[in-house]
Amino acid sequence: MTAQVLEALHVEGLEKSYGELRVLRGVDFTVARGSIFALLGSNGAGKTTVVKILSTLLKPDAGIAIVVGHDVLGEPTRVRESISLTGQFAAVDEILTGRENLLLMARLWHLKDRDRLADDLLRRFQLTDAADRRVGTYSGGMRRRLDIAMSLIADPPVLFLDEPTTGLDPEARLEVWASIRELARQGTTVLLTTQYLDEAEQLADRIAILHEGRIIANGTLAELQALLPSPTVEYVTKEPTLEEVFLAIVGTGHGRADDDGSDASVTEVPR
Predict the structure, then answer these.
(1) For the domain that residue 15 is a member of, what is the CATH number?
(2) pLDDT, average across residues 54-64
(3) Model pTM?
């Protein structure tokens, strides 16, 4: 089996400028099929520009971009048939119900057996109980999960998620994270752009750091951690994070308390 078959995405020497502003200055990375790849960077680093090029919404000035074996410039139609894109804000119709949103997307794709497809996605994203409610009554996490479900109606092998948890509360972020993990387990390749360090740490098989238009680091979390010198270790008491406190109070089951009711723990920190 060749390396090309194993790659869902292959990006080499990608460049893009807007007038005098050079946004991408030679971006290189590959993404294995069925994996979660996080493109990490601050606002303005060029993450969305990369996604737009890979999804054929923008033409690069130079470089190569291959999506499941199809060149974004030479075979844009084949690329669009192989991907789905979810932007920073949920693109759902708030007047329609969750099921109606999914059925509408299935009609736009000219798919058969639409009811079954909609029911399957509602079940996968834990929206069955809310299927016949108007989306305007959904929480932020439910809307985002429905948005991702709509992106998967045609079962694309590659899904681009451009900062999918922007504006969500901690509980909703965890709901979306669980959905993304499940997608990868079922074989979907996910390219995730984010500026949240914990999001990349929790979800990604590999992480690339995009800075000033270039990939300056690329690897697994362990490989990136190994780039720093080994710390001197001392033991301190770690207080629960605000997210742990919030989730414990609202009773989602994600928080964990010790037997005596506290949530303090001992951890190693660099000095």
Answers:
(1) 3.40.50.300
(2) 96
(3) 0.78
